[in-house]
Known about the structure:
Layout: E1 13-14, H1 15-26, E2 41-48, H2 50-60, E3 76-77, E4 80-82, E5 90-92, E6 101-104, H3 105-111, H4 116-123, E7 127-130, E8 140-143, E9 146-148, E10 158-162, E11 165-166, E12 185-192, E13 205-211, E14 219-226, E15 232-241, E16 245-256, E17 265-277, E18 281-295, H5 302-307, E19 317-333, E20 338-358, H6 362-367, H7 378-382, E21 402-423, E22 427-451, E23 457-458, H8 464-467, E24 476-499, E25 502-522, H9 532-537, E26 539-542, E27 554-579, E28 582-593, H10 597-601, H11 606-611, E29 640-654, E30 657-669, E31 672-676, E32 683-687, E33 690-704, E34 707-720, E35 725-727, E36 740-742
Amino acid sequence: MQGEGRRRQEIAQPMRTVRGREDARDARGVSGAGRWGAGVLVVMVSGGFADAAAAQQEAEAPVAEAPSTIRAPDVKVLAPRFITPLPGVVIERSQTTTNVQSATSTQLRESQAVNVTDYLGSNMQSVNVNDYTGNPFQQDIVFRGFSASPMIGTPQGLSVYLDGVRVNEPFGEVVNWDLIPVNAIQRMELMPGSDPLFGLNTLGGALAITTKSGFTSPKGELKLLGGSWGRRQAQVALGGNNGTVGAFVALNKFQEDGWRANSPSDVQQVYGRIDIRGRRVSGGISYLHADNMLVGNGLVPYEQYRVDPRSVFTSPDQVDNNVGHLAGNIRLEVNDSMSLSGLAYHRDLKQRSRSGDFWEEFAGAAARRDNPCDPNNPSNILYPDGAVGVDLPGCANVLPNGLFNIGSSDQKATGTALQYSWATERNQLVAGAAYDQNEVNFRQSQRLGFVGDDRNVFLTPERYADLGLAALAQDIQRNNLTGGSQSASLFAKNIWSVRPNLHMTLGLRYNHTRVTSNLVADRPIPLYQFTQQRFDTFQQRCGAEIGGAANAFARYYCTSGNYLYGSLNPSAGLSWLPREDLNFYVNWSKGTRVPSSIELGCARDGQAERLAGGSGTNTGKTPGCSIPTGLTYDPFLPQVRSYTTEIGVRGSITERMLWNFSLYQTNLADDILFVSLGTRNRGVFESFGKTRRRGLELGLEGEAGNHYFRASYSRIDATFESPAEIVNLSNSTSSKEIGKVST
């Protein structure tokens, strides 16, 4: 019941009726047509183990009643919601003080979603999907104006948990959705606001994902999918138990050529889990491995899109993710009302990226040649840079016009958590402690190439002999960033049933976090100036200074940062049911997010600007960085603080039809945003005073026979609430050499 119930179960139902209906849904075979392209074939096979099926039939077999038997009243079962990072307290829908949204494995399977973002964007209220890259596994999830994105530079505001382990990556707090196998998910909970139980980065909400086990999914499943653009997917899941030991394994293989040119993807995921259950003690261990190759070639100019919607601006933009995720948990039932839970994990992610772009310094390279262009070559007149729609001077096939930005990161995260739970008829308490530590090693380099007719950038090291550009033959190291964080926290949350229809929630979390960053960065010298002689001039050591010449022979400038952050985050809420089918609630919470190593490594250094005699206008002291390919200084950035208020009402029209309405507002102080400098696609992370997100949600869902329907409406207004100056060379309204934009 805890794992599979639809949300309609949240309204009281007789146990036998609900179970029979849900088991019938789980046994359903083919779920109908897919949703991708001109033709999609979906084959699904689902079957339980013999012992599980027999036990189920025995449990549901009608019982003959003797004439003298006294029939007890039906037992009503309320669908639980797991809102704690570790299992412990089961919270009923009527006790929650925010608009929590849920999804079960049945709903995920029947939706035909290929991944988590696919389901969230199609089924959850106030969720939008931004598809900047054009890859289904590299999408941004935006919930109530807060993002969980795989893209460095996107302000992250949502926490994502997998079986109690936070999977926001150490490098930029990003979320790699391709590392979560959808066929291993038992249940998902999307919780708005800044719940203190979910720690740092929970500014706008948290997504808690629970995986299947041999106890919750004792059956075998097979799903095969094929469709347009070479899309094909195979999912296999197998689980079972003998009452004491349960095992589960899920395999997912996904491939496609992509609907755009040069856009293939290959996703391989394996998840395994073993659980042991005793009378008082239970525990388990799980392992997730994924090895994925994703190509998402980004946006194209509108004019180019009108000519060919399937075209790309440049390619390849490829990311390779390889993760090993090991987690173990144990739970002790002290008595019928108290329990202790423990969790330990280790996560190791290796990410490699290669982005092919047009070389924006092409003009400077061409200007250094005596006769850069052949006037007799028609292509130099029509397309001087060798590409349609790009206004850059140059000569096709004479000088390199392509650039590879190459990134490599090794990220390790380790942590433990302990949780105490105490539940009585009128009170439910969760308290615990957590410690998380992560390490980041990021390296970035650049290399020159040529852009082909298909917009694909390719390498030509053999051209070094006649052009003398060292970047044609070797990678030019730009940055090496090492850093990490250590975070210790204490948390508590209590739900007190003042009356059977009145529930009060209080929560509190204390965080103590240290963030370190050590940067070794190359001088920002244009690649066309890198000759072998220039290489020989430099000494491979620190001592350089941006905008100056502290040491004319030192190639690198080196900086470091070590910052300590502390925060106390409370929450409070109230839920009132004037009658069974009507529920009013209100909630207030505070959350925080500390800057990551990448944000400190590319922060705007106002003090350095002032020392240089500027006020945010001296780009010689603030060169910015091209995320994720360049870094500069690592000055202090304050942590982000969020304050969320939500008020709402929900209820039911019938036992199978639910509705909800809520209003919310989140105010942020010292929001960290990536601000463009208007040149060479560079920018800096900067604290941005105050911002605000506020909106409303309205939803209706239910069942009619074998049909299920859902309708929702959401609106959000996201605004800047304080003045600021942005350095931007592209500001056409400024008469100064360096423009300023006021907000």
